[in-house]
């Protein structure tokens, strides 16, 4: 799979350029957003034992480029990035380690479909719901109790999200207040010391974000 960071740079460049030249209110739009992300834990299987790696909450930021397909229906490509500090680790539900040293980062590249609810209104804003499918790149650079967890390993896998939000007209653009649930599964993370692989890694992240939307 093509490196997501290369795709990220290309999308960010395109988004910034489009936003700079955006005028009027056409079918296309660019959104830049940031917010709060809670990843909880990354659950894996290591040699038949369940291992849960907790990570501290942190921020998320990203950009999206989209287009109205028809009234009330939008399609977009979204890029987002988040980085989390290591937390506690539990091994087979019993043995635990106080803290994971290092960081875990996630880069999502998603294709989304959003439906603007035409008959609804929320404080003067238009609510929407939708979902997306794409890929995640996970960079694990952590250790716990002297054991590596994907130390320097990069894995990619299938990802999805569901979400909802409200867009409020502000000047020539819109403020987008939203919730996103991002998830991935089936991630195999190498421990990089030759003793095994953390298999079938799964995680969920709950994200609250606010963004600014420019139409062109």
From TrEMBL:
> Would you indicate the residue range of the signal peptide?
1-22
Q: Name one Pfam family in it.
A: PagL
Keywords from the named record = Signal
InterPro entries linked to this entry: Lipid-A_deacylase-rel (IPR018550), OMP/PagP_B-barrel (IPR011250)
The reply on keyword Cytoplasm is no
Matching Gene3D superfamilies: 2.40.160.20
Would the keyword Signal turn up in this protein's UniProt record?
yes
Q: What is this protein called?
A: Outer membrane protein
Write the lineage as a comma-separated list. Answer: Bacteria, Pseudomonadati, Pseudomonadota, Alphaproteobacteria, Rhodobacterales
């Amino acid at each position: 799979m093509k490196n997501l960071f290369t795709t990220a740079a290309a999308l960010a460049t395109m988004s910034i350029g489009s936003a700079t030249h955006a005028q009027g209110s056409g079918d296309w739009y660019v959104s830049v957003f940031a917010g709060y992300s809670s990843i909880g834990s990354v659950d894996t299987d290591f040699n038949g034992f369940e291992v849960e790696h907790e990570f501290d909450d942190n921020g998320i930021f990203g950009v999206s480029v989209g287009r109205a397909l028809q009234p009330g229906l939008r399609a977009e490509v979204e890029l987002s990035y988040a980085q989390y500090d290591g937390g506690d680790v539990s091994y087979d539900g019993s043995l635990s380690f106080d803290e994971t040293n290092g960081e875990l980062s996630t880069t999502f590249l998603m294709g989304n479909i959003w439906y603007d609810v035409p008959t609804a209104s929320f404080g003067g804003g238009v609510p929407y719901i939708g979902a997306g499918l794409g890929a995640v790149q996970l960079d694990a650079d952590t250790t716990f109790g002297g054991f590596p967890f994907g130390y320097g390993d990069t894995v990619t896998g299938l990802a999805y999200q569901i979400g909802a939000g409200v867009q409020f007209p502000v000047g020539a653009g819109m403020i987008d207040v939203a919730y996103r649930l991002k998830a991935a599964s089936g991630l195999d993370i190498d421990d990089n010391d030759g003793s095994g692989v953390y298999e079938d890694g799964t995680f969920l992240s709950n994200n609250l974000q606010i963004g600014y939307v420019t139409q062109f």
